[in-house]
Amino acid sequence: MSKQENKDKLRVYEYAKSLNMSSKEIITILKRLDIPVNNHMSVMENDAVSKVEQFFKDIKNNAAAKRDSAAASGGGQAKAASVSSSGNGRTPESKSQTQAGQDNSAIRSTSNNKNQSEKQVSMNNNKTTNQTKSAGVATQTRSNQSNGSSQNNSGSRPSSQGGDRQGSGRPQGQNNRPNPSGGPKRGPQNSGSRPSQGGGQGGNRPAQGGGQGGANRPQSSANRSGGDSGRPGSTQDRARRDGGGNNRGGQKRFEDGNRGGFRGGNNNRGGRGGRGGKGGQQQERREKIDNTPKKIIVRGEMTVGETAKLLHKDASEVIKKLISLGVMATINQELDMDTILLLAGDFGVEVEVKIPVEDDRFETLEENDDPADLEVRPPVVTIMGHVDHGKTTLLDTIRSTSVTAGEAGGITQHIGAYQVEINHKKITFLDTPGHEAFTAMRARGAQVTDMTIIVVAADDGVMPQTVEAINHAKAAGLPIIVAVNKIDKPGANPDKVKQELTEYELVPEEWGGDTIFVNVSAKQKLGIEELLEMILLVAEVNEYKANPNKRARGTVIEAELDKGRGPVARVLVQHGTLKIGDAFVAGNCFGRVRAMVNDKGRRLKEAGPSTPVEITGLTEVPGAGDPFMVFEDERKARSIADKRSITHRQSELNSNTRVTLDDLFNAIKEGEIKDLNVIIKGDVQGSVEALKSSLAKIEVEGVRVKIIHSGAGAITESDIILAAASNAIVIGFNVRPEAQAKLTAEQEKVDIRLHRVIYNVIEEIEQAMKGMLDPVFKESVIGHAEVRNTFKISKVGTIAGCMVTSGKISRSAEARLIRDGIVIFEGKIDSLKRFKDDAKEVAQGYECGITLDGYNDLKEGDTIEAFIMEEVKH
Ligand SMILES: Nc1nc2c(ncn2[C@@H]2O[C@H](COP(=O)(O)OP(=O)(O)OP(=O)(O)O)[C@@H](O)[C@H]2O)c(=O)[nH]1
User: Fold this and answer.
1) Any binding-site annotation on 485?
2) Number of domains forming the structure of the chain
């Protein structure tokens, strides 16, 4: 455009303001209209203003047309499309793409359209289509342009503008628009009638419009020009396709249009504006206007509105896209991650997902310490092994023999773990022995242990639980030290143990392997020091370190409600240092460390890494294996605990939805599921957890243990009531029922099982469950027959000639012979005959011959009762 004196010196920003639009939007429109503009301070000439206004008018017209067409049926649209496609069309482009014949008839154009529709569909299906469309436009445009111009030239469209226009419009047309045929003829038509408007495109578009959804944008641009040229078909089509976007004339819409429709419009205008030969540059410029981001960062679920904003899209466009993806959504609807990814992908936008770890899931938080801040910490050791191989004795012996001088005389506290010192180095032992407890912790995500001592009794050798323990330790990737115990016993054969363990890849060093074996006698206190030294050796090799100078983090080993002190948690500090007064979260509970006691009963002010301590100051009792972490203040701790308990409840609810007590009965009746409901009460949370995980592992076909309640402490009356209501049994592990609970249990006939050894509990439950599975049979009498005659036949025995008096007699049934009301015999029916033929069954009112298996003393007047055993369904 040439410069003009402008009288009023209206600047872009002023004009935008007058329309209640942003400068950016006006600039966008001006650029589309090929009106030079630099920035919001640029002066808008009258001509520019009128062109922009015309632009708005066009949009309004199109919107009106769309409204009109909305009433019309889809068929109408299709018709319009086909009409316009055959009637005109920018066929040259299409042709260039499809290589379709140039002389075309309406027929051919139609068929080509069809082909193209198909082609488009497949393109649209291609995930990259959109990207290609947007990203590839600039480059494509150029090549198209050249194609276009040459074609146009040949197609009687010398005008470079026209050529450019079409060329630039083509990329879109190419991608989407079929209109393949009709080309040459149309070219001339277009140039003749409305060259600058690219009428051919307009005509073309509708044709495609009929068939394709995915190709919208490009088409809509073309349509728009069609609309300009006043063709009803194209207008409708465009209106339909552009839909809410353009019609509403809104601001953002324009941006949306950038990538498709308006670009086409632009080109057309370009033609009008006489920017011949600059098509390529314009195209590039237009590319810049497309403000669809290349990449977005998503930090979680978002509403449609938020997503649209992030994608620099109008919400309506996003909603439309969602509909095309099969998701019906409103602007305020939350979109899940998958949908956001799908949506962005469809817009050709790359997504980087950055979901921040929330404080309330602090156990997943990974803290990377500067290696310089790390200090050596004591190793944390678990003792595992087969039942009665001496785990507890070994733990006791280690504890009693390795008390540091300063702590001697302290009152030993059971806090789930203890520390010993040897050669001025500490070792922490978890004192809930057994792999069940260990794995229960591990299952909860708690990685507490650094190494495992596998205890094997030298007089007993490798037993099933030894192997299990090895596998558990291996699964956790822990170093193993083998303590061959009870070497004091006469039958002890440590070498046999070594030999057996080679099968499990535990080869002693002296045999060329890398497993440390130590012969000990927990009872006689032999080899204990050597064992401890070996632990330190392994620790040294593995360099266990932690940063003591930060807020504490660790794991709850066990917890209980103490009558005097309230909730008490025994925790192992794993990182940082726990101090008196620290606010913290443990599991779903929170608190402030009121008092801290170590395993020797000494009050501590602070506890560093690998230190087990018992803390008070919690509001509730956390669970064994729960993570704990210190937070800046109690308020924060409380809010995190609250959030965690909500999440926990939800997940529990979800996990319980499969079987509710109500459903349980039906499920059992239908034979779908059989649950053994169990309530577990134990002395400490650690043993309860161990028992729970062991019970969960019981596998008896079709039946499973369902723990409906568990906790530390005596069996209370409320436990019994719950058990009665839920048809559950109560297992007490190292606890007794309270007096009232015992009474109620007797009244309610609730089964209480008291145990001191986990193994026994498992065995008992397993047997009970197997018992449940044994089918229960019920006798069902199916008929009676009266003996009328008897025939003795050698080799066969006595045949009773009978009349079936009730029901039926079946050969597979069992029978009892009744004489004078007394059962004389009970057994199988050997043969059942009707005349001379074998019969499967004989019904009431018929005669038959019966022989009984192993019984011949049948007499006239006897009654044979046939019965079957039916399985009683649970
Ligand atoms: N002679 C001898 N007996 C031992 C030794 N260690 C343990 N025992 C005995 O073996 C039995 C079982 O020992 P525990 O320490 O209870 O064994 P455990 O592996 O803890 O057993 P559970 O807790 O039942 O799994 C006890 O009677 C101990 O006194 C030992 O070194 N020598």
Assistant:
1) yes
2) 6
